[in-house]
Amino acid sequence: MSDFDEKPEQKKRVTAQMVADAAGVSRSAVSRAFTDGAYLDSEKRVRIRQVALELGYQPNALAAGLQGGRSHLVAIFVGNMRSPYDTAFVGHLVGRLNALGKWPILIDGSGAQASTAVEDVLRYPLDAMILRGGSMPEDLVLQCAKIGIPMISSGRPVDIDGVDNVCCRNADGTRSMTEFLIAQGRKKFAYISAPRAYYSSTQRRNGVVQALAQAGRELMAEEDGDFTVDGGFDAGMRLLSNHRPDALICANDATAIGALTAAKEMGWQVPDQIAIVGFDDIDMARWPSFDLTTVMNPIDRSVDAIIELLNRRLETPEKSNEMILVKTELVLRGTH
């Protein structure tokens, strides 16, 4: 047998009882030494912590949660993560939770195993759950909302007691953009959506339709996308091969970037012949090669709202539901 085949002896985790034995105290004294606010003689606390440091002991946070304390575990159920916006959003949220001493568990809520994942994660002593529900099926959102732990829904409002909500003003954003394009002289409007089951896509389409109706107009063409660059490219190729709109509104920036690429490949002059706009204001929208006019869906403000509601719910579990609606802003660049 070679040296590489030899398996090193696995070091056993240091337990609270081992610390207690080494420090000459009880097991409960070790527990109190690592529990904020628990009564323990100061000299004994210092001695126990010094022994723990020497032995390499760390308290078991999961065990504390199971005993009725805070585990600081927060489950985040994410929907379709194919959108660059959702990836950036979750990354920012994880960073904020870490800064607060919370430890996120990320769960894919978009696949066939999503319901099983809900049941599995509830075996842990969660402090709270956050739903990124804009692209999650409604029945799964409702299933999560009934579990009885503090919950924040972001992206899809959930009207159930004990569930707080954060959502951007999707319809207001696309309505404002449509009104702006009408004022710029655009007359023939088309739209590329995401799957109709996505709450955000439906709301954004509603804003476009409402603004057009107020101006006595309607969509001349529409295609389904999937919130991705590839989906936007394919939908853009289909739509622009059969119609001649002078304004194309897309359900998100990734879709708009794909549609913009398709338009340029087909020889369309942007923005002279057609305005192409998105929603979210992802980093790629600012790239000079795209310079995309869009609706800002501010991540910082949305994550701030989630953290604010989470803290309030943890402090007062019985409080009334709260809803924070995050305002959008038009970001005017070169594609309108």
From TrEMBL:
Top-level taxon in the UniProt lineage: Bacteria
Alphabetical UniProt keywords: DNA-binding, Transcription, Transcription regulation
Pfam families linked: LacI, Peripla_BP_3
SMART domains, per the entry: HTH_LACI
CDD domains on file: HTH_LacI, PBP1_LacI-like
Matching InterPro entries: HTH_LacI (IPR000843), LacI/GalR-like_sensor (IPR046335), Lambda_DNA-bd_dom_sf (IPR010982), Peripla_BP_I (IPR028082)
PROSITE patterns documented for this protein: HTH_LACI_2 (PS50932)
GO molecular function, one term: DNA-binding transcription factor activity
Stretches assigned to the HTH lacI-type domain: 14-68
Gene3D superfamilies per the UniProt record, alphabetical: 3.40.50.2300, lambda repressor-like DNA-binding domains (1.10.260.40)
SUPFAM superfamilies named among the record's database cross-references: lambda repressor-like DNA-binding domains, Periplasmic binding protein-like I
Record has rRNA processing as a keyword: no
PANTHER family: LACI-RELATED TRANSCRIPTIONAL REPRESSOR (PTHR30146), LACTOSE OPERON REPRESSOR (PTHR30146:SF153)
Protein's UniProt name: LacI family transcriptional regulator
Lineage per the UniProt record: Bacteria, Pseudomonadati, Pseudomonadota, Alphaproteobacteria, Rhodobacterales
